[in-house]
Specification:
The structure holds 2 protein chains of 2 kinds. By secondary structure, chain A is mostly helical. Chain A is about 75% helix and about 0% strand. The radius of gyration of chain A is 24 Å and the shape is flat. Chain B has one domain: Cytochrome c oxidase, subunit III, four-helix bundle (Four Helix Bundle (Hemerythrin (Met), subunit A)). Chain B is about 75% helix and about 0% strand. Chain B starts with a helix and ends with a helix. Classes of the chains: A mainly alpha, B mainly alpha. Chains A and B meet through α1, α2, α3 and α4 of A and α1, α2, α3 and α6 of B.
């Protein structure tokens, strides 16, 4: 009996409106990401601005879907759902950003002329000298 | 049962079997996220390693990917409608929305398979010589089928294919749910199963946001 009432209360928060809001916002964010790239509106932007714009939209849409579709804050385990989610997000960040960071440095330091870096300023310090002089 | 008693039950952190299963499944989803994270990291590292093979920009059809994205997004909300029907104990509406979700999932997988087939038919993943011809050797071994595959395309098929495999697994579980619902209807256990599948299905849509951004949009820039 307790379980049944409990279940009824938990599903009470799941409404059509909540799903529809999440859906409409997701559609808008998806189009905001695709249309500028498809029509080349972002051609004049710097590449870091394009990457930040697209990754930002993706993160916002992920948060929207987590909020409106996953219903993590309903039910008795709400606190643990959120705690474990943040722990996982920190791990995911370490896995992706850490891998990229380590591999970029390995490519830069170890590959020398054979990798993507044509001339390393570690091997050819003369290349780095003009830039260093400018910053001083 | 009085409202006070319900409040007391909640204050004591009462766990029914369904919510414990759901929390356990959530932990599984999070560790599955780590698997995806390693594949995303792999893709990020090899994101420009197409060597003498073709660059992704020539082969990415953003209109097609947008179609795939909408199919998956709509399947996410139709599954949501199925869960609302579950909350109302409406078996026939649950079946109907599950059916719609299943068909959309099948469309998504079909589109992805078509895309993969198209990429191989165009020779996108293979390494090429200076004239643009596909190199027929892999590590000195001629397998008679064609050349080596650039690291970029290897990472591409691993990441997109991993997501596709998860969607396929979700479809298999959905078929199992049709059988469960047919045998027992909307029992507490079946509701818990549908709740777990709901988490899984929405999770796949969230991962797809990462895939279409990292692989397709950033690849097409």
């Amino acid at each position: 009996m307790i379980g049944r009432i409990h279940t009824a209360q938990r599903t009470h928060g799941v409404t059509v409106a909540k799903y529809l809001i999440g859906f409409v916002v997701s559609v808008i964010l998806t189009l905001a990401a695709f249309i500028p790239v498809m029509h080349n509106w972002v051609a004049d932007w710097s590449s870091s601005a394009k990457v930040l714009y697209l990754l930002g939209l993706a993160l916002v849409q992920m948060m929207v879907q987590i909020t409106f579709f996953l219903h993590l804050t309903d039910g008795p385990d709400a606190k643990y759902n959120i705690i474990t989610m943040w722990a996982a997000i920190v791990c995911v960040f370490i896995i992706i950003a850490g891998t990229w960071w380590v591999m970029w440095h390995l490519n830069y330091q170890v590959m020398g002329g054979a990798g993507r870096i044509e001339q390393s300023d570690v091997i050819y310090p003369a290349n780095a000298a003009p830039a260093a002089a400018q910053t001083q | 049962m009085s409202p006070t008693m319900i409040k007391t039950a909640q204050a004591e952190g009462h766990h029914d079997e369904g919510s414990t299963r759901l929390f356990g499944f959530w932990i599984y989803i999070l560790q599955d996220l780590f698997l995806f994270a390693t594949f995303f990291a792999n893709f990020a590292v090899f994101s420009s390693a197409y060597s003498s093979g073709a660059a992704p920009k020539e082969f990415i059809d953003l209109g097609f990917v947008l179609g795939e994205t909408f199919v998956l997004l709509i399947s996410s909300i139709t599954y949501g409608f199925a869960m609302i029907a579950v909350g109302k104990n409406n078996l026939s509406a649950t079946r109907l929305w599950l059916c719609v979700t299943f068909l959309l999932g099948v469309s998504f997988i079909s589109m992805e398979l078509y895309e993969f087939h198209h990429l191989f038919a165009e020779g996108a993943p293979y390494l090429r010589d200076a004239q643009g011809n596909i190199i027929p050797y892999v590590n000195g071994i001629d397998d008679g089928k064609g050349g080596g595959i650039a690291a970029y395309w290897s990472a591409f098929f691993s990441l997109v294919g991993l997501h596709g495999l998860h969607v396929t697994a979700g479809l298999v579980v959905m078929v199992c749910m049709f059988v469960h619902l047919g045998m027992h209807g909307l029992t507490a256990r079946n509701k818990a199963r549908l709740g777990c599948l709901s988490l899984f299905w929405h999770f796949l849509d969230i991962v797809w946001i990462g895939v279409f951004t990292a692989v397709y949009l950033l690849g097409a820039l």
